[in-house]
Design goal:
The protein is mainly beta. The chain contains 8 helices and 26 strands. The strands form 5 sheets. A 6-stranded antiparallel β-sheet has the order 1-6-2-3-4-5. Strands 17, 19, 20, 21, 24 and 26 form a 6-stranded antiparallel β-sheet that branches. The protein has a 5-stranded antiparallel β-sheet with strand order 11-10-13-8-15. It is elongated and about 95 Å long.
Length: 437
């Protein structure tokens, strides 16, 4: 439908288990409300597809086709609450044969319902044109999802950008660290904030030749929306107190995330692309739609100079978290800063380890070669905050000339493992990093 019309694609997944509805699935009542309002609104094309779990014999007995798409012509709710969909098989034949089909004489004895629909089952049964009525309950039972295609003219303001995401950019698994992923910042106008604008973000993956030849795509893609500030900082964590909305990972060519602005705190929204186990270069198109004015920009650039060090927590150096008696047994590094500049620290480690980084300034009037003197200055210059599994990063901060000490610690001192620290700075020359213990 997107290829034919260019209208904005949205997919609603039915839950497989009502007692355990997953993040990307929609509860049936909410799905009905969305479907009914979309049909009533008018600027929406609706299709549904049968589940591939429907066996060939089941499909044959029901008049359905396994893994097949049907057009939705009408969404209807009667005065007594009966919920029906009028569908069409694009083959213009092979119609549904279950309840509410033209051959279901018992159900159509309800003359009131026939009158509300303006439907004549006797006339419909004479010719199979692929058009039929089916109950919402049977749709939930035999169909997998709903596809809504929205008229982009519903949004007066839009921006489209195209780019390539190289496989070498960022970690292969970005569950804990999205700082290297493609990021954008959507800046809403004051009018958009005051009117609680609606924002839709569509991420479209460019289809490969292999996929055009019939192969299933191995690219599972989504997009995260996170609250940012006028600093337009790079976002490092996919799930945090700044999270606004997370799309579901899908190998479908399109992922749509919708968000309604709640207030001034939403003026700056980061859009972060994410892949599940990325395996090759990927081309994409990012389309942003809004009911009010906005513009799309880039977050601040990464600091240009990187110094990396690696190490591990051993039985002698796993001192545990900040505040414990053995904290100063943790690995520490002396950092000599030759000039004022910006600095940011990050650390990656194993998934099972929760990590923290802090950097303290060594007092200039004491022996600067002894990092233990950092204890005299208790407020860290840089601190990654709460312990986080797999990855942690500090804010970007201006540091002055001097000598500092960096501590890397794990929350569970008994757990041993390796880590990799990156010191990013704007200082081009002269910075020295030494392992102390």
């Amino acid at each position: 439908m997107f290829s034919l019309t260019g209208w904005i694609p949205e997919r609603i997944f039915f839950p497989r288990n009502l007692s355990d509805i997953r993040d990307f699935e929609t509860e049936p009542e909410r799905a009905w409300d969305r479907l009914y309002s979309a049909s009533t609104f008018g600027d929406c094309l609706i299709t549904v597809s049968t589940t591939r779990e429907l066996s060939a014999s089941q499909a044959q007995s029901l008049g359905l086709v396994t893994g097949h798409a049907y057009a939705v012509l009408e969404v209807f709710q009667s005065r007594d609450g009966t919920r029906l969909l009028q569908m069409k098989n694009p083959w213009a034949s092979k119609s549904w044969t279950g309840k509410y089909s033209p051959h279901d004489r018992e159900t159509w004895k309800n003359s009131t319902l026939r009158a509300e629909l303006g439907y004549n089952p006797d006339l419909a049964s004479k010719h199979d044109d692929g058009i039929f009525w089916i109950s919402w309950k049977d749709v939930l039972l035999y169909f997998q999802n709903i596809h809504l295609s929205w008229n982009p003219a519903l949004f007066q303001h839009s921006v489209v950008t195209h780019n390539i995401w190289p496989v070498s950019q960022g970690p292969q698994n970005d569950t804990f660290n999205i700082g290297e992923n493609p990021q954008y910042v959507l800046v809403l106008s004051d009018e958009a904030v005051s009117k609680a604008a609606t924002v839709w973000v569509l991420l479209s993956r460019h289809v490969t030749k292999q996929e055009q030849s019939g192969e299933d795509s191995r690219d599972f893609l989504t997009i995260h929306l996170l609250r940012n500030s006028e600093k337009k900082e790079i976002m490092w964590y996919p799930h945090s107190q700044f999270s606004l909305a997370n799309g579901a990972y899908s190998n479908n060519p399109h992922v749509l995330v919708r968000y309604d602005v709640t207030g001034p705190a939403d003026k700056y929204i980061s859009l972060v692309l994410s892949q599940h186990k990325k395996c090759h270069d990927l081309g994409y198109t990012l389309s942003c739609y809004c009911t009010e004015p906005f513009h799309l920009t880039q977050p601040q650039a990464h600091l240009p100079v990187l110094t990396t060090v690696s190490g591990e927590w051993t039985s002698l150096t796993a001192g545990g978290p900040v505040g414990t008696a053995d904290f100063f047994n943790n690995p520490m590094y002396r950092v000599t800063v030759p000039d004022e500049g910006l600095m940011q620290l990050s650390c990656s480690t194993e998934r099972s380890l929760a990590v923290n980084l802090i950097m303290l300034r060594l007092p200039s009037h004491t022996n600067s070669h002894n990092p233990m003197n950092a204890q005299q200055h208790g407020v860290p210059v840089l601190d990654s905050g709460n312990y986080r599994h797999g990855f942690a990063a500090t804010d970007r901060t201006k540091v002055s000339k001097g000598t500092y000490v960096v501590f890397v610690s794990s929350f569970h001192g008994a757990k041993l493992g390796k880590y990799h620290i990156t010191i990013a700075t704007s200082i081009r020359n002269g910075m020295i990093v030494d392992r102390v213990q």
